Amino acid sequence: MAASRRVLFLTSPVGPLGSGEGGGVETNLMNLTPILARRGHRVAIAAPAGSVQPAPDVLVYQIEGRPPIYATTARRDQPVICQPDGVLERMWELAMRVQDQYDAIIGINYDWLAYYVTPFFKTPVGHVISICSTIDAVDAMIRERFYEFPHRFAVNTCAQALTFPFLDPCRMMSLYGGIDLARYVFNPRPQNRLSWVARISPEKGLEDAFAVADKLGLPLDVCGKLQHPEYWEDCRARYPNVDVTYHGFLPQQALHQIVRNTKAMLMTPHWVEAFGNTCIEALAGGTPVIAYNEGGPAELIQDGVSGYLVPPRDVDALAEAVRRADQLDRQNARRRAEQFSLERFADRYERFIERVICGRPDDPLDWELQASHPYDD
What we know:
This protein has helices at residues 24-38, 87-98, 112-116, 136-148, 158-161, 206-216, 229-238, 252-259, 277-284, 297-300, 315-323, 330-338, 342-358, and strands at residues 6-10, 42-48, 58-63, 104-109, 125-129, 153-155, 173-174, 191-197, 220-223, 244-248, 262-267, 289-292, 307-310. The chain is an alpha/beta fold. The chain folds into two domains: 6-178 and 342-358, 3-Layer(aba) Sandwich (Rossmann fold), CATH 3.40.50.2000; 181-338, 3-Layer(aba) Sandwich (Rossmann fold). The protein starts with 5 loop residues before the first strand and ends in a 19-residue tail after the last helix.
């Protein structure tokens, strides 16, 4: 980007930055905003109260209010609900009040209100759609705004874009994710155990990881925010013989120490993951990832090279892939992670921000656009 920009990001309203409630949206902003600030941009985030500050030079507006429902577990016919004391509503009210201080406002979201208010701003508003198609009412508003402002929309992966029938993944910018590779240490000699990292919520499919560990008699390390305690207890009750250790929601370095010491990490979502930051974090330590062949992980993992992709919901195929994990060269996992550097991630966001500020609907899409695997050499 030729010029430095003033950018306000709006994060997920479901929980404070640093809490783990916001999943990949949190991770991406915590990784992205410090490097944008170091590059000379003035960066701020509107976030729920109690949020941590990603870096000293990143301003965080702390917004009080009630969180909305989780879109990840909502019904498709979930109605739109606005709350007078809602944190989502107050975040966008704050954005409206301070918009003159910024060149662009970027929402990383999947919330009806975020898309609805777009044309009422004087400052250009861009959107990174944060999850797959989940709620009909939200999709309808995305569709309407996308037809008005196609240059102001981006996704995480092509696989995510494909869940929206009105989006053409070949004409969408996939931003993916990025990590600071210097913070991840390669481990060539892991222990004979498995890892699983995600929010503990039914759509993440933790029971499938339990089933694989039970079939193979392997210890299982589970890490992540405990959002649904009853779901966790049900998994344990169904597989009482699994040697499972729950480590909780961990800081990055502590999580890395656990995952890089396992022979493989399992990704078992029962919905379409938009990206999968935990995937590239595992690969960075040399840990191959075994995942269902759908969504973001299918674009991150090179089948038979840096991990294995198996048919969705096929626990037997997951177990067989684990048996073959020792045949993989862990160096290939690290090499794949190196294609998702923090610098490349920031480059792509800079290009998207510039497009939001300067682009027009009839402009040719002149950035790097590819229908799949844009990081493949």
